[in-house]
Amino acid sequence: VQLQASGGGLVQAGGSLRLSCAASGRFVGIKDMAWYLQAPGKERELVAIIDREGRSDYADSVKGRFTISRDFVKHVVYLQMNSLNPEDTGIYYCRADSIIPMNTYWGQGTQVTVSS
């Protein structure tokens, strides 16, 4: 299974970006899909997660600003990021948990830089 992330870039504070991550390969079903942020010099942290029922959860720091969604047919997860601030800067990784095989996969990461 491969995860291909895209949509990162450079944006000014207050701006918006939309990340996408598409899963491809041999699998049957995906449970959770999620986005993580690895800020410079910090550990990778969960930003948002969405399950196969469409239920989502967010880190406190992004609630009200970010929205996670997914296309259940195309196996794509999105992260709409609004009101970006410099603390949102870092590499965003997507994660998918396949059902068959039961495994966790990571995308290659996409860089987001928010300038003040």
Characterize the structure shown.
- The structure is a single chain.
- It is built from no helices and eleven strands.
- 0% of the residues lie in helices and 61% in strands.
- With 116 residues, it is mainly β.
- It is globular, with a radius of gyration of 14 Å.
Q: How much of the polypeptide forms β-strand, as a percent range?
A: over 45%
- In round numbers, the mean pLDDT is 96
- Ranges where pLDDT stays below 50 over 5 or more residues in a row are none
Number of strands: 11
Shape: globular
Structural class: mainly beta
What's the SSE pattern?
EEEEEEEEEEE
The DSSP helix count reads 0
Percent of residues in helices: under 10%
Biggest sheet record: 7 strands, mixed
User: How many angstroms separate the termini?
Assistant: 37 Å
Alpha carbon gyration radius: 14 Å
